[in-house]
Amino acid sequence: MRPWLIACALVATAATASADDAIAVGAAVGAGGQGAATYGAMELRFDAAWPDAGVVVGLGGRAVWEDGVFRAADWARAADAITLVRDVRVVRQVRDGVTLAAAAGGLAPSHLGDAADGYRAALDDRMRTGARASLTTERATATVEIDDVLDPALVGAVTKVVVAPTWTASAAVAIDPGSMPYGSHEAVEVGLARSLDVVELGGSFLVEPGSGAAAIACARTHLTRARLRYTAAVDLRAGRGDLGSAFGPLYRAERATVWMRTGIGAGGGASIGLVAPGGWLDASLRERPGLGPLATLAAGAPLGRYVQAAGWLAAARDASAGAAELRVAWARRLFSSLQLARMIHADDTPAWSLTVWFGAST
Predict the structure, then answer these.
(1) DSSP 74-104
(2) In 35, 47, 272, 306, which residue has its Cα 20 to 30 A from 204's Cα atom?
(3) Alpha-carbon Rg of the chain, whole angstroms?
């Protein structure tokens, strides 16, 4: 039987499956183009949630055909089965004031102090399964993570400790363990910040072994008015090397060149954010010595009960990537979506992608 007939049968099965408050199954088919090739895909999903236990499980598998040829490289190894893990989360309150949380799947962008700022593991349509764990107490937080257990480019940790009523000390480390033709690289940061009402002022010292070191000064603020939350941040930095700007959203595309700078320079950045009942928006601009400016934008909005939209964009002098999706729920169990992406493949080849999806879920 042809794959498309199998996919249609699975969609029909999902649409008629019995509903359950905690468990859902789904299937979807997609068609479009990626670069100069036609693109077709079939995806199966299994999602379950047990709120009382603090457990969420999301599993999914996708088969892709490019120009009608099955992309076997996605499933060439037994270890590739780990990419079936899309969104697994566990939250446990160990005791009063102590919470342990863990997540696995496609992780949200990494923020490890200034050592990793908005790093994204996926710049193409390949599934990447990472893991993140955090421990939170009344006076401290600690997080460890790996971006992709099969092909890591970032392994890191960050901790913050309240050392006085208005003072917080922090430490962060970001490591690229290296793979051919890349070597291993590290960024280590220690800092101190003081909170003054809605403003936080801080400073840190960041070391990139083999490249240089930098001093960083920053200021952050937040304000809540009429169900709207505004945030803003600015930082200035100077020193030798990449000044802590290596592990950004385009790192996987810039990986071969970001660590080459060893000269003295200065840089800085600014960001703004807005969270509202109707959506959210984050924008930033950063000047990076040797790499030029980097602009980022991320936004999302429910737009109503049956329509959702979200997207992100990162643009630099030599690379750019982003994705956007418009999703419509036509009925209780049927949905469709339009996805547009500017991707950068593992071989640094850029490509545009446009895909239309139709699916069903319980």
Answers:
(1) GGSSGGGGGGGEEEEEEEEEEETTEEEEEEE
(2) 272
(3) 22
| Run of H or E residues at 4 | helix 3-16
| Range name among 94-98, 190-194, 272-276, 335-339 with the lowest pLDDT average | 94-98
| Buried residues in 260-295 as b, exposed as e (16+ CB within 10 A) | ebeeebebbbebebebeeeeeebebebbbbbbeebe
Interacting residues of 245 by C-beta distance below 8 A, sequence separation 6+: 117, 258, 267, 286, 288, 289, 291, 294
* Report field, pTM of the whole predicted structure over 0.85: yes
Which amino acid is present at 12? A
| Angstrom distances, CA of residue 340 to CA of 23, 249, 263, 325, 353 | 29, 18, 39, 6, 6
Of 311, 326, 312, nearest to 284 by C-alpha is 312
* 3-state secondary structure at position 7: helix
Nearest to 246 by CA among 117, 124, 156: 117
The answer to whether the beta carbons of residues 319 and 344 sit under 8 Å apart is yes
For residue 217, which amino acid is it?
A: A
Q: Which amino acid is at 271?
A: S
Q: Are 241 and 213 in contact (CB under 8 A)?
A: yes
DSSP 132-156: EEEEE-SSEEEEEEES-SSS-S-EE
Q: With 70 as the cut, is the pLDDT of residue 16 above it?
A: no
- We find that the CATH architecture of domain 77-329 is Beta Barrel (2.40)
Complete DSSP assignment for 270-320:
EEEEEEETTEEEEEEEEEETTTEEEEEEEEEE--SSSEEEEEEEEEESS-E
